[in-house]
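Hi there. Long-time user, first ticket. I'm pasting a complex I've been working with (about 279 residues overall). I'd like to know whether the download I got is complete or cut off, because the file seemed smaller than I expected. Thanks.
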Amino acid sequence: MIQPSITPDDNGYMIRGMGPFDCEAVLDGGQCFRWVQREGIWQGYAGRHMAKIRPMTDGIYLECSLNALPMWRAYLDVDSDYISAREVLSKDTALTELIDEYPGIRFLNQPFFECVISFILSANNNVARIKKTVQTLCETFGEPMPDGYAFPAPDILAGLTDAQLRSCGTGYRAPYIIHTAQQVAQGFPHEQLIGLPLDEAREALTQFKGVGVKVADCILLFSLQRKDAFPVDTWIRKVMIDIMGHKTSDNQIRAYAAQRFGEHAGLANQYLFHYHRTK
DNA sequence: TTCCAGGGTCCTA
DNA sequence: TAGGACCATGGA
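Hi, the file is complete. Here it is re-exported in full:
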């Protein structure tokens, strides 16, 4: 693959050679909940760092501080080879047209804790409401930053009451968030999950209250670079039953996807999810 | 008013 | 192991 080039100017960094980056699909397509778009510029936070992004022909223009550049480079998955992955998946009849239509679908590598909490909130919820609740959590319990709020730290959420969290719109998920924040604050070794077999990594994450198989797969895919994970939600369940031709269990859907899409199952999942959610 | 949303937990058979 | 009730909430 072509190595991306990063060229600084007075305000930010031109990142070229990483291929197209579909800001709407990536930053507002249900894999993260902290980005807003104003006049073509996307602004968002990861942890305590803020960035602004706008798409370019073969990459993005990124505004961020110099010391945060390596973090954003990892977060935006700049160095992964999406061209080869798309070439492989485009041979699949279920994906050929989708890959042509959406060349800029990619993954983010989000900070572990905010990804876990965001997807605990995603249970039986919708993207607009998840974004609203995450924003309220940040404004209420996150550290004020120059142009927004950081995501609340694990020890902060771990010390809250059920009522304090429910006042932010978490609903019945409040005790799940407190329990999970306590576990992470005590030191959860999430980096070790990256090298585990997928089922073992998934099982480790489902120890958290409020994290089932689907949410665990989202965390693995959107935070821990496990691009073989295949989250089965209501949209994916519908489209996979259609592809497979018969009603089946989520376990069988995951097994079928692993066999059909292999190491690129996660990217196939994103294409199917994005297309069928937005069509 | 009812259904649905990037579901999980708990109980029962 | 599978199936079903229940859980907060707001938009369609």
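A couple of notes from our side: Chain A has 14 helices and eight strands. The first strand of chain A starts at residue 5 and ends at 8.
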